[in-house]
Design a protein that fits this description.
Blueprint: H1 7-16, H2 19-23, H3 26-33, H4 36-41, H5 45-60, H6 66-79, H7 83-95, H8 100-104, H9 117-129, H10 138-147, H11 159-166, H12 170-182, H13 184-191, H14 197-215, H15 233-250, E1 257-261, E2 268-270, E3 275-279, H16 280-285, H17 289-304, H18 307-316, H19 318-326, H20 334-344, H21 349-366, H22 371-380, H23 395-407, H24 419-426
Parallel strand pairs: 1-3
Antiparallel strand pairs: 2-3
Helix pairs in contact: 5-12, 6-7, 6-9, 6-12, 9-19, 13-18, 14-20, 15-17, 15-21, 15-24, 17-21, 17-22, 18-19, 18-20, 21-23, 22-23
The protein binds zinc ion.
Length: 432
């Protein structure tokens, strides 16, 4: 157990750790320093400093939902049998207006009728996280280790001291858990480039099942895909030819899978792990095969930049990160959130411009005509993906079109498909 410091010593260290500076009010600083949590934490002033900044930001956050925050803390307190933490936050929760059913529901969240799906998902997160990260993929572990500057790898810290840090206040652990959940965008951005392709593929498969189910609103199942009925097969062959040429030039670390699906919007979509969906409506709107190739090249840009992976990690939250490490993605509501993110939100303007630049470069490399991407973007208002706003005649779309046109190489162009193949591709969703 960690000893509680005598009150005077706690106050002295509280001031030395510069926590009092942030509090500003000396009387409040003094009473805070006398709380058990600080009397325990201040055994290590450096950790206290880090923890209190974090906890202050969390408790004072205006974007964090306080009820969700309390659910996570209560559930953690209950699971770790921390009487102090639990009792403390029963008070905080009551002041927020939570009733006893909600507060005591953390003992068994699955059975609590007062909880929404989101409530159950966050309380489950505490279980998934459970304060311990086990990284089974050696490459991923090495990549994280190499970037984790604050992790002591030299062994200069005594093992005992490290253990005492691990056993530190539950409050600190809870803060970390909460920040891990709510600070996910920042974490997702950092973790995304480190993901080994194998993990990205697994993540993509889990999300793909959900995304497919969400896109296939009329429950067509296998018939949701175009290109399988006899009259559609030549169209499928033409599409494969087009994608192969792009893929060969892209040299991605993973294989693309491209499906044309029966959706009327002029959209396409790239999932983590290289699954592409091209909507029937896009092929209908395209005036030639190079325009289809242009949009697919743009989607390949999102795959290469792992934009979908980053979005999924943000949408699925921390439980996805844990799922990733434990090799189980399908657990909980995370995969549903993640799939919704992919379908309903749009990438940033920077990510779109980067995908355009990638596409232009790729089309130049393949000897295709990048102007065709600019042409179709202008015609469909720049909304190449679901969730994007259509910005016809909008300066943003005009700027994208101009940037692509400016970067298009002046070279001999060979069309992606000949007239016969293009006619076939147009009929890829013709049906039996
Ligand atoms: Zn895009």
């Amino acid at each position: 157990m960690i000893p509680l410091l005598p009150p005077e010593e706690a106050l002295k260290r509280f001031n030395e750790a510069h926590i009092a500076d942030a509090v500003k009010d000396p009387a409040l600083a003094k009473s805070m320093s006398q709380l058990n949590v600080f009397r325990a934490l201040l055994n290590n002033p450096a950790i206290t400093h880090a923890q209190s900044g974090l906890a202050g930001a969390l408790m004072g956050s205006k974007t964090l939902n306080p009820r969700i925050r309390e659910l996570v803390i209560l559930r953690t307190g209950w699971r770790t049998k921390s009487e102090y933490e639990f009792v403390q936050h029963v008070g905080v929760s009551r002041r927020l207006g939570m009733n006893d059913e909600e507060i005591l529901g953390v003992r068994n969240p699955a059975q609590c009728k007062a909880y929404s799906d989101a409530d159950r998902a966050v309380t489950r997160l505490v279980e998934v996280g459970n304060q311990r990260l086990e990284i089974r993929d050696p490459d991923f572990a090495a990549a994280i280790d190499a970037r984790a500057e604050y992790v002591d790898r030299t062994g200069s810290l005594e093992r005992r001291q490290r253990l005492s840090v691990i056993r530190w206040s539950v409050g600190a652990t809870v803060s970390l858990l909460v920040v891990a959940w709510f600070g996910v965008p920042a974490i997702a951005t950092r973790v995304t480039p480190l993901l080994p392709t194998g993990i990205e593929l697994k993540l993509g498969d889990a999300v793909n099942m959900q995304v497919r189910a969400m896109l296939d609103t009329r429950k067509k199942g296998a018939a949701f895909d175009c290109g399988t009925a006899a009259p559609e097969i030549p169209g499928r062959a033409a599409l494969d030819k087009l994608v192969r040429r792009l893929e060969a030039a892209a040299a991605l670390p993973l294989a693309l899978r491209t499906n044309v699906v029966r959706r009327t919007e002029a959209n396409a979509l790239a999932l983590p792990g290289g699954q592409l969906y091209v909507f029937e409506g896009l092929i209908a709107k395209a005036e030639n095969a190079d325009e289809v190739a242009g949009v697919i090249a743009h989607e390949i840009g999102h795959v290469a930049h792992r934009d979908g992976t980053r979005a999924v990690l943000e949408g699925g939250g921390l439980s996805f990160l844990f799922g990733m490490l434990l090799g189980d993605f399908v657990g909980g509501g995370a995969v549903v959130f993640a799939a919704k993110t992919v379908l309903q939100s749009s990438y940033t303007r920077e990510a779109e411009s980067a995908a355009d630049a990638y596409a232009t470069d790729l089309l130049n490399k393949t000897g295709g005509d990048a102007h065709s991407l600019a042409n179709i973007l202008g015609r469909i208002g720049g909304a190449t993906e679901p969730g994007m706003k259509i910005l016809l005649n909008h300066p943003e779309t005009k700027a994208r079109v101009a940037a692509i046109n400016n970067a298009t190489a002046i070279n001999a162009r060979s069309p992606f498909l000949d007239t016969g193949e293009w006619t076939a591709l147009k009929k890829i969703c013709a049906g039996p």
